[in-house]
Amino acid sequence: MASNFQVIVVGLGIAGAVSAILLERAGIDYVVLERAPQLRRNGTAISLNAQTLRLFEQLGLLDQLLAKAMPLRQIVFFRQKKMTSKNKKSNNNNNNNSNNNNNNLQRLTAIPLDQLEHRHGYPSILLSHADLMETLLAAIPPDRIHWNKRVLDVTEYRACVAVKTQDSTIYDGQIVLGADGAYSAVRHHMFRHLKKRGRFVPDSDFEGRRVRLEMSVAAGTAEHLDRWMYKSLRESTVDMMAIVGDDGPHMAWLLPLKGERICWLVGTKQREIQKARNDHAFRLSEWELRADRSMYDQARDLKLPIAGTLGDLIDRSNSQDIVQVMVDEKCFKTWFSDRMVLIGDGATQAILDAVCLVNLLHQMPKTTNREIHRIFSTYYDQRYPVVQSALQSSNMIAGLAAKTGKVANMARKIASTLIPQAAMTYALDRLMVHRPIASFLPPPPARGKVLPRTQTSMV
Ligand SMILES: Cc1cc2nc3c(=O)[nH]c(=O)nc-3n(C[C@H](O)[C@H](O)[C@H](O)COP(=O)(O)OP(=O)(O)OC[C@H]3O[C@@H](n4cnc5c(N)ncnc54)[C@H](O)[C@@H]3O)c2cc1C
């Protein structure tokens, strides 16, 4: 490694893994500390598009990812209408004849994605979290990863930073990169240091006020499904589906994957989990923990637009891989201190954070506090507005799918009928024009009709 400084990466999720690959290719010395003893499987899925696939092509990983993924045709929204006695009876009759017929399911709207490859050079794809992580891990030299290293403490000194893990090992470096997820230990220590030095941290950033809980989500992947029962498993491109119910507190997402698999998500709205919110264990839970079965079992009878019920998919899922996450709409304002910096929150945004930060670190001439501050400030200025607007868009899409009631139905109707295709294309173009790559590697071939924006962290 050519660099005169070492980066300690805390956490080996998507954010930590992409950072490690980029640091490796940039010739910057680094080590990764991960609290788990090995890669843990979970039954979720990730959608990637041109924003990150251009970087993966540059890193030589695109073909491997495409081989494990399904191209997405569209996102389709369905409404599960309230059961009246009349359509209950009609549904029962239908169920006797066919597994597939559900009079109460109304198709609301669809966001087409199949034009993306032509416009931005890469398709939108769906792949399992496990397949993505396996591909990323294979690109990191194993001796750089230290498993079973839960970080307990981080201390900043004038010219270095020391990280202590649960087995009392101390790692010294010049920069700590916190990629340790939503309940980051690095963030906790960063706030402590900033406060100790009398620096300003907004009240809203403190843990106690962190979670504005919108929804709790359980997710798993049904495997070894019958291709003849589920038509989507026989197709070369797939639809991501969202089903929102008038009747209950639940909404569901379906994400068909390669290899006769379907990832499912069940969201349970806030009021239903108020009780659980006061439970300490629940509040601190992260998505790698096993999900509480009652949270998704309540939605078993939900009829699916593909075939059968959600219960059919739950029964085909490995219960060890079913995870639970809390979804909130928080965007922290504090991202760095003297020698600690945070990345992550959403797979795509985490990858974009990583490439921006490593591009800047690669150009860093020395590791004085002043120079590090300049690099971290530039990183923040470049990324914070993008992350904030991405959060707003994802909240809008999630809200479109999750909210119930007359106003929400009206909003969906407006989205489906009044927003012209041209406006949708314009919005996607604005998003996808931002597809950054590593400044220190040869660029991938130019692809797509809409050229990527020039990168500020490359100059
Ligand atoms: C069902 C589902 C679908 C999703 N789909 C998408 C999608 O399509 N697109 C998208 O952008 N995002 C999606 N997301 C969100 C995305 O998966 C996550 O935001 C992303 O995986 C977070 O990655 P991360 O690396 O930042 O954090 P994590 O995956 O949480 O990884 C953090 C790592 O840090 C480790 N760690 C934590 N604390 C410590 C410590 N003290 N010491 C050492 N190690 C520690 C953890 O063990 C873990 O390995 C989805 C999430 C779910 C649940």
Give a quick precis of the structure:
The chain has 459 residues and is of the alpha/beta class.
Inertia-based shape = globular
Proportion of beta-strand residues? 15-25%
Give the names of the bound compounds. Answer: flavin-adenine dinucleotide
> What integer is the average pLDDT?
84
Query: How many strands appear in the DSSP assignment?
Result: 17
* Amino-to-carboxy terminus distance: 23 Å
Q: Briefly note the structural class of the backbone.
A: alpha/beta
Low-confidence stretches: 94-101, 208-213, 272-288
Continuous helix count? 15
Q: What characterizes the major β-sheet?
A: 9 strands, mixed
Write down the Rg. Answer: 23 Å
Q: What helical percentage do the residues reach?
A: 25-40%
Descriptive overview:
The structure is a single chain. With 459 residues, the protein is of the alpha/beta class. It is 35% helix and 22% strand. The protein has helices at 14-26, 50-58, 62-67, 85-97, 116-120, 129-138, 185-196, 274-277, 280-283, 293-297, 310-315, 347-362, 369-402, 406-417, 421-432, and strands spanning 6-10, 29-33, 45-48, 70-80, 105-112, 125-128, 145-146, 151-156, 161-165, 170-173, 175-178, 213-222, 238-245, 250-257, 261-269, 323-328, 340-342. The strands form three sheets. Strands 3, 4, 5, 6, 12, 13, 14, 15 and 16 form a nine-stranded mixed beta sheet that branches. Strands 7-2-1-11-17 form a five-stranded parallel beta sheet, sandwiched between helices. Strands 8-9-10 form a three-stranded antiparallel beta sheet. Helix 1 (14-26) packs parallel to helix 6 (129-138) and helix 1 runs parallel beside helix 12. The longest helix has 34 residues, at 369-402. The radius of gyration is 23 Å and the shape is globular. The structure holds flavin-adenine dinucleotide. Flavin-adenine dinucleotide (FAD) binds at residues 10-16, 33-36, 44-47, 150-151, 179-181, 185, 219, 265, 287, 325, 344-348, 350. Residues 10-16, 33-36, 44-47, 150-151, 179-181, 185, 219, 265, 287, 325, 344-348, 350 line the site of flavin-adenine dinucleotide. Residues 90-104 have a biased composition (Low complexity). Keywords: FAD, Flavoprotein, Oxidoreductase. It comes from Actinomortierella ambigua.
